[in-house]
Amino acid sequence: MSETQLEALLAFFKAMSNESRLRIVGLLAGRERSVQELAELLGLKEPTVSHHLAALKALGVVSVRAEGVVRWHALDAEALARMNRALLEPAGMAAITPKAESWEAKVLSGFVDEAGKLKVMPASRRKRAVVLAWLARRFEEERRYLEAEVNEIIQAVHWDSATLRRELIGHRMLAREGGIYWRLPEDGWLKI
Length: 192
Prior knowledge:
The chain has helices at 3-16, 19-30, 35-42, 46-59, 77-88, 90-96, 103-111, 125-136, 147-155, 161-170, and strands at residues 33-34, 62-67, 70-75, 144-146, 174-177, 180-183. A hairpin with a 2-residue loop joins β5 (174-177) and β6. It has ten helices and six strands; from the N terminus they run ααβααββααααβααββ. A three-stranded antiparallel β-sheet has the order 1-3-2. Strands 4-6-5 form a three-stranded antiparallel β-sheet. Helix content is 56%, strand content 13%. It has two domains: 3-96, Orthogonal Bundle (Arc Repressor Mutant, subunit A); 103-188, Arc Repressor Mutant, subunit A (Orthogonal Bundle), CATH 1.10.10. It is of the alpha+beta class.
């Protein structure tokens, strides 16, 4: 969801969270009404009703037309329906949810620099497993690698390819036989 859409959604909920505005929308749903009529029906002063109508007009759900000295306000039901479709459907609402950074992403941000290089291996076994899983995902499934290729992939992110290669095998992320390496399925990786 874009910033503009998010601002529109916030403005909608802010405007509609007021009881008087909701009652005005309900009254206008039946037919158009003047400020004076709305004030009388709601038991509010005309300036207060005008203030609420201004908020609803700014939102685009109320239109106004002049007839002599009287201004008639009407609910724009189609605008309300459009707003509902754009903002309140599940896909639209899901788009406003901030993407929560996972624990794994937080761990990686602490150990991998902006260039994608591993700064240091974590001392914690649990965090080390996260970093190793990140490294293991650099290897394609179903592909066989020579040791030199494995070293090249690892050295692209850290200088100590021998240690990291052994760790990947120890965590059952890579397998080795006769100098050939391959990535194992993730469901078999050691979770620490």
